[in-house]
Amino acid sequence: GAYVLQVKATDADDPTYGNSARVVYSILQGQPYFSIDPKTGVIRTALPNMDREVKEQYQVLIQAKDMGGQLGGLAGTTTVNITLTDVNDNPPRFPKSIFHLKVPESSHVGSAIGRIRAVDPDFGKNAEIEYNIVPGDGGNLFDITTDENTQEGVIKLKKPLDFETKKAYTFKVEASNLHLDHRFHSVGPFKDTATVKINVLDTDEPPVFSKPTYTMEVYEDTPVGTIIGAVTAQDLDAGSSSVRYFIDWKNDVDSYFTIDATEGTIATNELLDRESTAQYNFSIIASKVSNPLLTSKVNVIINVLDVNEFPPEISVPYETSVCENAKPGQVIQTVTAADKDLSPAGQRFSFRLSAEASNKPNFTVHDYRNNTAGIETRRNGYSRRQQELYFLPVVIEDSSYPVQSSTNTMTIRVCRCDSDGTILSCNVEAIFLPVGLSTGALIAILLCIVILLVIVVLYVALRRQKKKDTLMTSKEDIRDNVIHYDDEGGGEEDTQAFDIGALRNPKVIEDNKIRRDIKPDSLRFPRQRPPVEDNTDIRDFINQRLQENDVDPTAPPYDSLATYAYEGNGSVAESLSSIDSLTTEADQDYDYLSDWGPRFKILADMFGEEESYNPDKVT
Length: 619
Hints:
Number of strands: 31
CATH superfamily of one domain: Cadherins
Helix content: 10-25%
Structural class: alpha+beta
Number of helices: 7
Distance between the termini: 135 Å
CATH architecture of one domain: Sandwich
Strand content: 25-35%
């Protein structure tokens, strides 16, 4: 009787004329699921609890027929498609009451170890299922979530499994609908429960250490081979294989210790020094004898304990000062002590003067008994003129066993201070300096003096250089300037860049046998220049100077005028200059080439008589 919808038919006949316009409704197809009111056309459900999971869509054929007229009853039909809408009226159900799973003990935490599924005949969100583990045996080790795509329950591992500890687990899982319809609460509880049994499978596992980390202690300078501790690992599998130990070598520090491969005992391999390394950190690996590939690792920390082997010393500063106007009992410095050893809790240092300094009336040491001491004056004033420095031996002892002590010498400098005790100067030289002239002012004055000296030295050097150049250019007369002019072209640099031996006068070279391209080692002979008359020809003057330079072994090798004057002289070919050449090639006479020897034979054949030259014979 649930309302579905209402249909309505219209008749074009006159409603006032008989029953021609009166319409009656009926169902031709769709029974017994639906019924229709013949007068109003209202369609209702005809059966209770229609199940969408059984049939979802229905086609209902409706007929509308008038009640009379001359032509009899006329009818019209229409089809109504009815789709059932799903409601959450079915609880989820497990297809079986017990699920069996087999899980290896080596499964990782968080991994999925199995799936179970409950069936809900509803559709869409009405079929969404939520899975929960009933509190009990497996609540701490396992978890379950819902796969949104398949609506399956995915069982995951929360903690590692151990076959040797427990081989099986049993717990219950509950499946329930997420979206409930209050109209169907009376149908029953919309949930179901199933039992899950998990059997743990044994796998070959690596050895297990008895501790996650091992910490050991050893005194420094312990003899080599001393056992300082041991590690233990066991094979928890059913076979219970033996275990072997070895150190995971990573650097040279690991060589300070050794381990017994069978017992796992750790011993020193070298002498240890806490001041060098206070702690060692390395790893030890345990492997199964039956399967060496199965290994486990543990971290070992070894702390080196201190042995009192170093005496305490005064911390910086080792030098202090005292004013000339100091009063007796005035504390001029507070000292503390430092010990290279690892000071234990409650370590105490004591301070005192050495025996030889106790009788001197200059300074004393006051031990405050809190690991500090004060250096106090014992005199009424000090004089820098009499003694600038005092050396105070201070003895410091520690409270460890065995007791270590040291004597530390403090340097005390006497300084000039003002009435408030502010130090003005601590240097002896400052005694003789004017009062009020600070060190910064002295440094500034010295810098100014140095700068003035540098300027004076540079000025004098420039003056000497200028004067030297003037003398060099003026010491020769006007005729000597011609020789200077002939030196044009680079001077000594040209002799270093090129070999000018070919330009030397052969006659002069043969006569003197002295190299002109380097400076001779012989002493310089004084030049004796004869007086030159005023009416002497300039050529004679040049030849005279030329001969002097050729004979002088100390003359520079860049006298280009002297060598160029004799260019070509003494050569078999005489001058090769084109100045005296004939105007045309036809006027040339090359017969003289035959007289030059075998080196010029080819040229003689080429420029001599044409019939005497045969290019095919030239090689």
